[in-house]
Specification:
There is one protein chain. The protein is of the alpha/beta class. The protein folds into 2 domains: about 20-65 and about 345-355, 5,6-Dimethylbenzimidazole Phosphoribosyltransferase, Chain: A, domain 1; about 70-340, Nicotinate-nucleotide-dimethylbenzimidazole phosphoribosyltransferase (CobT), large domain (Rossmann fold, 3-Layer(aba) Sandwich), CATH 3.40.50. The chain contains 13 helices and 6 strands. The longest helix is centred in the middle third of the chain and has 20 residues, at about 155-175. The N and C termini lie far apart (about 70 Å). Bound molecules: nicotinate mononucleotide and 5,6-dimethylbenzimidazole (DMD). Nicotinate mononucleotide binds near residues 88, 89, 190 and 305. Nicotinate mononucleotide binds near residues 188 and 303. Pfam families: DBI_PRT. One of its GO terms (biological process) is cobalamin biosynthetic process. Catalyzes the synthesis of alpha-ribazole-5'-phosphate from nicotinate mononucleotide (NAMN) and 5,6-dimethylbenzimidazole (DMB).
Length: about 375
């Protein structure tokens, strides 16, 4: 379909759609859920953050008793020009190899998706090594890799638009399938360098405050990675006050696609469960572009990558789990998903004090 006769706002060209505000949350449903929580047969607050999850989801789904039975996982994969600078413990061809492993069911996210009953799709945004066609893999290659962010912008404005649009298109597919919760995962050797640079750029922090070992860099590698990120921040300094320009200069195709997906989720009213370090950097970019986007996000877990804490603080949210995970792929979000489902089931299925004939807490005189 040509852009001129398309009804898809993302196909109209440009990235202005990203700056439109998020959908409003339903404060009446939120109040009703808070009230219901207060009537369930437990001391008030005794289910801790499981109560908060049900209340947030009630506000997002616009009903007193929300439900998240159907999750959708989009894994966005791409290679990074900066990998040539020796900033990862693994070789670049692992990106393509892991896409194939995800398709054949051997990756952590493959097992998790199957076990939580989620639909999963793999989106290849461009890898240096070839990826054999497979029904689960969507070929959306933008380029074999981004350019080296230490030497110039990682991607062109047109490539940024394509990547953001791929994220929005994934959310369209999730919604069409009836998904109630969206998970973005990623795979890309070198992408902790891009995510660290992007987050540092957006937060105005030096690399030293955010950089970490990623897949397991040694001390010398970490020193190299930190210096490279600082050099990239200095090179692109004038661009960093504009989140779209920061994303183009320092991001990756999969990071931009995740940002586009989070924005589309927020604008179209689909709750997103954000995974680890790279996903959170994309979520931060999404929040800077789209007013209100943070309302539609839950943070699944605290990544072991040290810079995650700074991003989490900027997002103003608390991760649900802290399992020392640092895999990516959407794995932490998939691991947290059953908790969301349980939180909704408790909220919907527990008896109230009145229903069960249980005496309520004595009122203070
Ligand atoms: O999401 C995280 O918390 C996370 C933390 C560290 C590494 N990763 C994964 O490891 C890869 C990037 O690591 P690196 O060292 O190559 O930059 C990429 O495929 C990510 O999915 C993911
Ligand atoms: C093997 C491997 C699997 C991954 N999954 C996400 N990032 C990864 C990085 C490596 C190296």
């Amino acid at each position: 379909m040509s852009p001129s006769n398309s009804t898809d706002p993302h196909a109209a060209g440009g990235i202005d759609w990203c700056r439109a505000p998020a959908a409003a949350v339903d404060l009446n449903a939120r109040e009703a859920a808070i009230s219901r929580q207060g009537n369930l047969t437990k001391p008030p607050g005794a289910l801790g953050r499981l109560e908060d999850i049900a209340i947030q989801l009630a506000a997002l789904q616009g009903r007193e008793t929300p439900g998240v039975d159907r999750a959708w996982i989009s894994v966005f994969a791409a290679d990074h020009g900066v990998a040539a600078a020796g900033v990862s413990a693994f070789p670049q061809e692992v990106t393509a190899q892991m896409i194939a492993n995800m398709a054949t069911g051997g990756a952590a996210i493959s097992v998790l998706a199957k076990r939580i009953g989620a639909e999963i799709e793999l989106i290849d945004l461009g890898t240096v090594a070839p990826v054999a066609p497979h029904p689960m893999i969507r070929d959306a290659a933008i380029a074999p890799a981004t350019a080296n962010l230490a030497e110039g912008p990682a991607m062109s404005p047109v490539q940024l638009e394509q990547a953001l649009g791929e994220g929005a298109a994934a959310v369209e597919r999730a919604r069409a399938s009836g998904a109630e919760l969206y998970i973005a995962g990623e795979m890309g050797i070198g992408n902790t360098t891009a995510a660290t640079a992007l987050a540092a750029g957006l937060l105005g922090r030096p690399a030293a405050e955010l950089v970490g070992p990623g897949t397991g860099l040694d001390h010398a590698g970490l020193t190299r990675k930190r210096a490279l990120i600082d050099a990239a921040l200095a090179r692109h300094a004038e661009q960093l006050s504009d989140p779209a320009a920061a994303l183009a200069c320092l991001g990756g195709f999969e990071i931009a696609a995740m940002a586009g997906a989070y924005i589309a989720c927020a604008q179209q009213g689909l709750p997103a469960l954000v995974d680890g370090f790279i996903s959170s950097a994309a979520a931060l970019a999404a929040c800077r572009l789209c007013p209100g986007a943070a309302d539609w996000m839950l943070l699944a877990h605290a990544s072991a990558e040290p810079g995650h804490q700074a991003i989490v603080a900027a997002l103003g949210k608390q991760p649900l789990l802290d399992l020392g995970m640092r895999l990516g792929e959407g794995s932490g979000a998939a691991a947290a998903f059953p908790l969301l489902r349980l939180a909704c089931q408790l909220h919907a299925e527990m008896a109230t004090f009145a229903e069960a004939g249980v005496a309520e807490k004595a009122r203070e005189a």
